[in-house]
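Moderator note: this is an archived Q&A kept for reference. The question asked for a predicted structure of one protein chain; the sequence and the answer are reproduced below.
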Amino acid sequence: MKKKTKTKTSPRVKTISKVILLCIAIGLIYITLAPDADVTSYRVSIASLKGVWTTAHPEYQGRFLQFADDVVTFGWGDKGAGSYSFGAIKTESAEQGILVDIRYHDIEAVDYHLRFHYVYKNGGILWMNNQKGVYWRRTSTEPLYDPFFK
C-alpha cells in the first residue's frame, strides 16, 4: 500500500493567498461602506438647477425660486420678486443628496448665501434646513420670470 504524503505549501503561496483574501475583504468593506457613487459624482452647477422651483406647502403659496444663467430670483408672492447675481457655488456630499451653498449679491454688491439640500433624481427636489417639511420641486426647466434686481 502506498503511503499518503502531505504536500507542503510553500511560504510564497501562503503569502499570495493571504494578500488575495485581504484584497477581497477590503473590496467588500469598500462596497458596503462607500458613499453612493451616483450622488458624489454628480456635479451641481447653475445649469443643473436652471428653471423655476415651487412648493405645495400652504405657507409658501405664490412663492418661487428661479435659477437662470447668472441670476437667482426669489418670488415673494404678493410682495413681488427680486433677482440677484450669482457669485459662486459650492457643493459637498450630504447624507441625503448634495448640500449646495450659493453665494449671490444684490446691485449694491452686498453678499448673501443660500444653502440647501438638493437631489437631482426625478426632476429634482430641494429643501432648506430652516424650512422643515417644505420641499421645492422644479415646475419648469426654463426661467419664466424677467429678472428684477433688488
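Archived answer notes: The mean pLDDT is 84.
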